[in-house]
Amino acid sequence: MTDVAASARLDPARRRAAATKRTMAVAAGVGFALVFGLARATHPGHASSPVQTSNGTASSSSSFDDGEQFDDGGSFSFDDGSLGQSSGGAQFGTHVS
Amino acid sequence: MLVASTAAWYAARAGGMVAFALLTIGVLLGLLLSGRARLAEWPRFAVEDVHRFVGLLAGTFVAIHVLVLLLQSYVPFSVTDLVVPFAASWKPLPTALGVVGMELMVALALTNRFKKELPFRFWRRAHYLNFAVWLLALAHGIASGTDTTSLWGAALYAVCGGAVAALTVWRFAAGRALEPWALRLWPGTAGLLTAEILVAVALVR
Fold first, then answer.
1. How far apart are alpha carbons B169 and B176 in whole angstroms?
2. What is the pTM of this model?
3. Are A39 and B13 in contact (CB < 8 Å)?
4. Which of B21, B46, B53 lies nearest to residue A31, judging by beta carbons?
5. B45/A contact by beta carbon, under 8 A
6. Alpha-carbon distance B120 to nearest alpha carbon in chain A (angstroms)
7. Interface contact flag, B10 A87, Cβ < 8 Å
8. Taking a C-beta distance cutoff of 8 angstroms, is the pair B32, B46 a contact?
9. Do B91 and A75 touch (CB under 8 A)?
10. pLDDT digits (tens, 9 = 90+) for B159-184
Protein backbone atom coordinates (compact mmCIF):
# COMPACT_ATOMS: atom_id res chain seq x y z
CA MET A 1 0.00 0.00 0.00
CA THR A 2 2.91 2.32 0.88
CA ASP A 3 4.54 1.49 -2.46
CA VAL A 4 1.35 2.34 -4.29
CA ALA A 5 1.07 5.66 -2.47
CA ALA A 6 4.72 6.49 -3.19
CA SER A 7 4.29 5.54 -6.82
CA ALA A 8 1.21 7.72 -7.11
CA ARG A 9 3.19 10.60 -5.65
CA LEU A 10 6.10 10.12 -8.03
CA ASP A 11 4.09 9.48 -11.19
CA PRO A 12 3.39 13.15 -11.96
CA ALA A 13 7.13 13.91 -11.73
CA ARG A 14 7.90 10.98 -14.04
CA ARG A 15 5.33 12.21 -16.54
CA ARG A 16 6.74 15.74 -16.30
CA ALA A 17 10.27 14.47 -16.93
CA ALA A 18 9.11 12.39 -19.91
CA ALA A 19 7.26 15.38 -21.38
CA THR A 20 10.31 17.60 -20.88
CA LYS A 21 12.53 15.06 -22.65
CA ARG A 22 10.15 14.88 -25.61
CA THR A 23 10.01 18.68 -25.76
CA MET A 24 13.81 18.93 -25.65
CA ALA A 25 14.21 16.41 -28.47
CA VAL A 26 11.72 18.31 -30.63
CA ALA A 27 13.32 21.66 -29.70
CA ALA A 28 16.76 20.32 -30.64
CA GLY A 29 15.40 19.29 -34.05
CA VAL A 30 13.75 22.66 -34.56
CA GLY A 31 16.93 24.40 -33.36
CA PHE A 32 18.95 22.40 -35.88
CA ALA A 33 16.66 23.48 -38.72
CA LEU A 34 16.72 27.08 -37.48
CA VAL A 35 20.53 27.26 -37.26
CA PHE A 36 20.77 25.56 -40.66
CA GLY A 37 18.54 28.28 -42.09
CA LEU A 38 20.45 31.07 -40.36
CA ALA A 39 23.80 29.67 -41.53
CA ARG A 40 22.45 29.49 -45.07
CA ALA A 41 20.96 32.97 -44.94
CA THR A 42 24.15 34.59 -43.66
CA HIS A 43 26.45 32.65 -45.98
CA PRO A 44 28.07 34.92 -48.60
CA GLY A 45 26.91 32.67 -51.42
CA HIS A 46 23.28 33.05 -50.37
CA ALA A 47 23.18 36.56 -49.02
CA SER A 48 20.32 38.41 -50.63
CA SER A 49 21.94 41.80 -50.18
CA PRO A 50 25.09 42.77 -52.04
CA VAL A 51 28.37 42.22 -50.27
CA GLN A 52 30.12 45.47 -49.46
CA THR A 53 33.71 45.47 -50.60
CA SER A 54 36.54 47.30 -48.87
CA ASN A 55 36.78 49.97 -51.54
CA GLY A 56 33.22 51.00 -50.82
CA THR A 57 31.60 49.50 -53.90
CA ALA A 58 28.87 46.95 -53.63
CA SER A 59 29.14 43.75 -55.55
CA SER A 60 26.60 40.99 -55.91
CA SER A 61 27.39 37.79 -54.09
CA SER A 62 25.52 35.64 -56.58
CA SER A 63 28.77 34.56 -58.20
CA PHE A 64 29.18 31.98 -55.45
CA ASP A 65 27.59 28.65 -56.18
CA ASP A 66 26.79 25.66 -54.06
CA GLY A 67 29.60 23.20 -53.91
CA GLU A 68 32.17 25.67 -55.10
CA GLN A 69 35.41 25.49 -53.14
CA PHE A 70 35.79 29.04 -52.03
CA ASP A 71 36.91 30.71 -48.89
CA ASP A 72 33.96 30.51 -46.53
CA GLY A 73 34.27 33.89 -44.98
CA GLY A 74 37.97 33.43 -44.44
CA SER A 75 37.54 30.37 -42.30
CA PHE A 76 38.99 27.99 -44.86
CA SER A 77 42.66 28.55 -44.96
CA PHE A 78 45.78 26.52 -44.63
CA ASP A 79 47.62 29.04 -42.57
CA ASP A 80 48.83 28.73 -39.00
CA GLY A 81 45.32 28.72 -37.62
CA SER A 82 45.38 32.21 -36.28
CA LEU A 83 42.04 33.50 -35.07
CA GLY A 84 41.43 35.88 -37.90
CA GLN A 85 38.30 37.70 -38.94
CA SER A 86 35.76 35.28 -40.31
CA SER A 87 32.94 37.60 -41.16
CA GLY A 88 31.87 36.88 -44.72
CA GLY A 89 31.59 40.47 -45.78
CA ALA A 90 34.79 41.67 -44.22
CA GLN A 91 36.86 38.79 -45.52
CA PHE A 92 35.43 39.14 -48.99
CA GLY A 93 36.50 42.74 -48.86
CA THR A 94 40.03 41.70 -48.02
CA HIS A 95 40.16 39.51 -51.08
CA VAL A 96 39.16 42.14 -53.52
CA SER A 97 41.19 44.96 -52.08
CA MET B 1 30.76 9.12 -50.23
CA LEU B 2 31.42 12.85 -50.10
CA VAL B 3 28.66 15.41 -50.18
CA ALA B 4 29.80 18.40 -52.20
CA SER B 5 26.85 20.67 -51.44
CA THR B 6 27.22 23.58 -49.07
CA ALA B 7 24.04 22.22 -47.42
CA ALA B 8 26.22 19.60 -45.71
CA TRP B 9 28.51 22.36 -44.46
CA TYR B 10 25.50 24.20 -43.00
CA ALA B 11 24.31 20.95 -41.41
CA ALA B 12 27.71 20.40 -39.79
CA ARG B 13 27.64 23.93 -38.39
CA ALA B 14 24.05 23.55 -37.16
CA GLY B 15 24.91 20.23 -35.52
CA GLY B 16 27.81 21.83 -33.65
CA MET B 17 25.76 24.82 -32.46
CA VAL B 18 22.85 22.66 -31.25
CA ALA B 19 25.28 20.28 -29.54
CA PHE B 20 26.84 23.24 -27.70
CA ALA B 21 23.43 24.55 -26.61
CA LEU B 22 22.45 21.09 -25.33
CA LEU B 23 25.80 20.69 -23.58
CA THR B 24 25.10 24.01 -21.85
CA ILE B 25 21.66 22.82 -20.68
CA GLY B 26 23.28 19.63 -19.38
CA VAL B 27 25.88 21.64 -17.42
CA LEU B 28 23.16 23.92 -16.01
CA LEU B 29 21.10 20.93 -14.84
CA GLY B 30 24.25 19.38 -13.35
CA LEU B 31 24.92 22.60 -11.42
CA LEU B 32 21.34 22.64 -10.13
CA LEU B 33 21.73 19.03 -8.99
CA SER B 34 25.10 19.52 -7.30
CA GLY B 35 23.88 22.74 -5.65
CA ARG B 36 20.90 20.79 -4.30
CA ALA B 37 18.47 23.30 -5.67
CA ARG B 38 14.91 22.72 -4.52
CA LEU B 39 12.56 22.97 -7.42
CA ALA B 40 8.84 22.78 -6.81
CA GLU B 41 7.31 19.67 -8.39
CA TRP B 42 10.71 18.53 -9.64
CA PRO B 43 12.14 15.80 -7.39
CA ARG B 44 15.83 15.05 -7.79
CA PHE B 45 15.32 11.80 -9.74
CA ALA B 46 13.28 13.66 -12.38
CA VAL B 47 15.97 16.33 -12.85
CA GLU B 48 18.61 13.57 -13.05
CA ASP B 49 16.54 11.81 -15.70
CA VAL B 50 16.35 14.95 -17.85
CA HIS B 51 20.07 15.67 -17.19
CA ARG B 52 21.05 12.20 -18.50
CA PHE B 53 18.78 12.56 -21.53
CA VAL B 54 20.21 15.99 -22.42
CA GLY B 55 23.71 14.50 -22.24
CA LEU B 56 22.70 11.75 -24.69
CA LEU B 57 21.05 14.28 -26.98
CA ALA B 58 24.17 16.47 -26.91
CA GLY B 59 26.28 13.41 -27.79
CA THR B 60 23.94 12.65 -30.69
CA PHE B 61 24.37 16.15 -32.14
CA VAL B 62 28.15 16.00 -31.64
CA ALA B 63 28.05 12.75 -33.65
CA ILE B 64 25.98 14.48 -36.36
CA HIS B 65 28.49 17.39 -36.38
CA VAL B 66 31.47 15.05 -36.78
CA LEU B 67 29.87 12.63 -39.26
CA VAL B 68 28.64 15.39 -41.54
CA LEU B 69 32.07 17.07 -41.40
CA LEU B 70 33.55 13.76 -42.50
CA LEU B 71 31.05 13.23 -45.31
CA GLN B 72 31.10 16.72 -46.79
CA SER B 73 33.80 17.95 -49.13
CA TYR B 74 33.25 21.70 -48.84
CA VAL B 75 36.00 21.94 -46.21
CA PRO B 76 37.53 18.47 -46.44
CA PHE B 77 38.35 16.54 -43.25
CA SER B 78 39.77 13.03 -42.95
CA VAL B 79 39.09 10.63 -40.07
CA THR B 80 42.59 11.42 -38.77
CA ASP B 81 41.82 15.15 -38.83
CA LEU B 82 38.77 14.54 -36.64
CA VAL B 83 40.31 12.22 -34.07
CA VAL B 84 43.94 13.37 -33.77
CA PRO B 85 44.45 16.84 -32.28
CA PHE B 86 46.41 19.22 -34.56
CA ALA B 87 46.19 16.81 -37.51
CA ALA B 88 43.74 19.04 -39.37
CA SER B 89 45.24 21.71 -41.60
CA TRP B 90 42.08 23.85 -41.24
CA LYS B 91 42.56 26.04 -38.13
CA PRO B 92 44.65 23.45 -36.25
CA LEU B 93 44.32 24.87 -32.71
CA PRO B 94 40.55 25.55 -32.71
CA THR B 95 39.91 22.19 -34.39
CA ALA B 96 42.15 20.46 -31.83
CA LEU B 97 40.09 22.00 -29.00
CA GLY B 98 36.99 20.41 -30.51
CA VAL B 99 38.71 17.06 -31.01
CA VAL B 100 39.99 16.95 -27.41
CA GLY B 101 36.57 18.04 -26.11
CA MET B 102 34.82 15.34 -28.11
CA GLU B 103 37.21 12.64 -26.93
CA LEU B 104 36.88 13.75 -23.32
CA MET B 105 33.11 13.65 -23.75
CA VAL B 106 33.30 10.05 -25.02
CA ALA B 107 35.51 9.10 -22.05
CA LEU B 108 33.02 10.68 -19.63
CA ALA B 109 30.14 8.88 -21.35
CA LEU B 110 32.01 5.64 -20.66
CA THR B 111 32.36 6.51 -16.97
CA ASN B 112 28.59 7.10 -16.91
CA ARG B 113 27.99 3.75 -18.61
CA PHE B 114 30.11 1.94 -16.01
CA LYS B 115 29.13 4.16 -13.07
CA LYS B 116 28.07 1.22 -10.89
CA GLU B 117 31.37 -0.57 -11.41
CA LEU B 118 33.48 2.52 -10.62
CA PRO B 119 34.18 3.98 -7.17
CA PHE B 120 31.71 6.83 -6.64
CA ARG B 121 34.45 9.33 -5.75
CA PHE B 122 36.28 8.57 -8.98
CA TRP B 123 33.09 8.93 -11.04
CA ARG B 124 32.16 12.19 -9.30
CA ARG B 125 35.60 13.73 -9.84
CA ALA B 126 35.62 12.58 -13.45
CA HIS B 127 32.13 14.02 -13.90
CA TYR B 128 33.45 17.50 -13.07
CA LEU B 129 35.50 17.24 -16.27
CA ASN B 130 32.24 17.95 -18.09
CA PHE B 131 33.08 21.57 -17.30
CA ALA B 132 36.29 21.14 -19.28
CA VAL B 133 34.28 19.62 -22.15
CA TRP B 134 31.95 22.61 -22.09
CA LEU B 135 34.86 25.10 -21.98
CA LEU B 136 36.64 23.31 -24.84
CA ALA B 137 33.42 23.35 -26.85
CA LEU B 138 32.97 27.07 -26.16
CA ALA B 139 36.54 27.90 -27.19
CA HIS B 140 36.27 25.61 -30.24
CA GLY B 141 33.00 27.22 -31.28
CA ILE B 142 34.16 30.80 -30.85
CA ALA B 143 37.57 30.28 -32.46
CA SER B 144 36.61 28.08 -35.38
CA GLY B 145 32.91 28.69 -35.85
CA THR B 146 31.99 30.38 -39.10
CA ASP B 147 28.93 31.86 -37.40
CA THR B 148 30.71 33.35 -34.37
CA THR B 149 30.78 36.88 -35.74
CA SER B 150 27.13 36.84 -36.72
CA LEU B 151 24.77 38.47 -34.25
CA TRP B 152 22.87 35.26 -33.54
CA GLY B 153 26.10 33.27 -33.12
CA ALA B 154 27.53 35.77 -30.63
CA ALA B 155 24.16 35.88 -28.83
CA LEU B 156 24.13 32.09 -28.45
CA TYR B 157 27.62 32.05 -26.92
CA ALA B 158 26.78 35.01 -24.67
CA VAL B 159 23.54 33.47 -23.36
CA CYS B 160 25.10 30.04 -22.81
CA GLY B 161 28.29 31.43 -21.23
CA GLY B 162 26.40 33.91 -19.06
CA ALA B 163 24.00 31.25 -17.80
CA VAL B 164 26.80 28.82 -16.88
CA ALA B 165 28.84 31.57 -15.17
CA ALA B 166 25.81 32.74 -13.18
CA LEU B 167 24.84 29.26 -12.04
CA THR B 168 28.45 28.35 -11.21
CA VAL B 169 28.71 31.37 -8.91
CA TRP B 170 25.31 30.50 -7.41
CA ARG B 171 26.52 26.91 -6.87
CA PHE B 172 29.49 28.07 -4.79
CA ALA B 173 27.62 30.91 -3.08
CA ALA B 174 24.68 28.70 -2.12
CA GLY B 175 26.80 26.76 0.37
CA ARG B 176 27.81 29.92 2.22
CA ALA B 177 25.86 32.01 4.67
CA LEU B 178 25.15 34.92 2.36
CA GLU B 179 22.29 37.37 2.43
CA PRO B 180 19.53 36.63 -0.11
CA TRP B 181 20.36 39.79 -2.07
CA ALA B 182 24.01 38.67 -2.36
CA LEU B 183 22.88 35.27 -3.63
CA ARG B 184 21.11 37.09 -6.46
CA LEU B 185 23.65 39.87 -7.05
CA TRP B 186 26.84 37.83 -7.49
CA PRO B 187 25.47 35.24 -9.91
CA GLY B 188 23.73 37.96 -11.89
CA THR B 189 26.89 40.06 -12.07
CA ALA B 190 28.99 37.07 -13.10
CA GLY B 191 26.48 36.11 -15.77
CA LEU B 192 26.27 39.58 -17.27
CA LEU B 193 30.03 40.13 -17.22
CA THR B 194 30.69 36.77 -18.87
CA ALA B 195 28.05 37.44 -21.51
CA GLU B 196 29.55 40.84 -22.30
CA ILE B 197 33.08 39.43 -22.51
CA LEU B 198 31.94 36.62 -24.81
CA VAL B 199 30.10 39.04 -27.12
CA ALA B 200 33.24 41.19 -27.30
CA VAL B 201 35.50 38.20 -27.97
CA ALA B 202 33.12 36.78 -30.59
CA LEU B 203 32.59 40.04 -32.45
CA VAL B 204 36.25 41.12 -32.57
CA ARG B 205 37.51 37.64 -33.50
1. 11
2. 0.79
3. yes
4. B21
5. yes
6. 25
7. no
8. no
9. yes
10. 999 999 999 999 988 878 778 888 88
ipTM of model: 0.87
pLDDT tens, position by position, B22-44: 999 999 999 999 888 888 788 99
Q: Based on C-alpha coordinates, what's the Rg of chain A?
A: 24
Q: Give the β-pairing of A51-52 and A58-59.
A: antiparallel
Q: Which residues contact B135 (CB under 8 A, 6 or more apart)?
A: none
In Å, how far is B6's CA from the nearest CA of chain A?
5
How is chain A split into domains, by residue range? 2-96
pLDDT one-digit tens code per residue, B133-162:
999 999 999 999 888 888 899 999 999 999
Q: Distance from B39 to chain A by nearest Cα, in Å? A: 11
Asked whether the beta carbons of residue A13 and residue B46 sit closer than 8 angstroms, the reply is yes
